[in-house]
Amino acid sequence: MTELPRYAYVVLADRIAADITSGKLPVGAALPGERAMTDIYSVSIGTVRRAVRELRERGLVATLPAKGTFVVAAPAPPAE
């Protein structure tokens, strides 16, 4: 069976989560601004906003109004 296609925001959220796991974005680091992420990842601002919401729901980032979005935790390793 082939793998189902994934939404662009999930792909982006997974990519940012991988950067957090690898240490490229350590705990306490600020994510780039929404407009900057549209250029960095070549996606729409709606995709960026959904991806950041997904990361918040995963407990990886927190957004402070007028301050930015910051890494608060690394993803848990997969269960074996």
Automatic annotation (TrEMBL):
Pfam families the record matches: GntR
All residue ranges annotated as the HTH gntR-type domain in the record: 6-74
PROSITE patterns: HTH_GNTR
Entry keyword DNA-binding: yes
Annotated keywords: DNA-binding, Transcription, Transcription regulation
SUPFAM superfamilies: Winged helix' DNA-binding domain
CDD domains in alphabetical order: WHTH_GntR
Gene3D superfamilies from the UniProt entry: Winged helix-like DNA-binding domain superfamily/Winged helix DNA-binding domain (1.10.10.10)
Protein name: Winged helix-turn-helix domain-containing protein
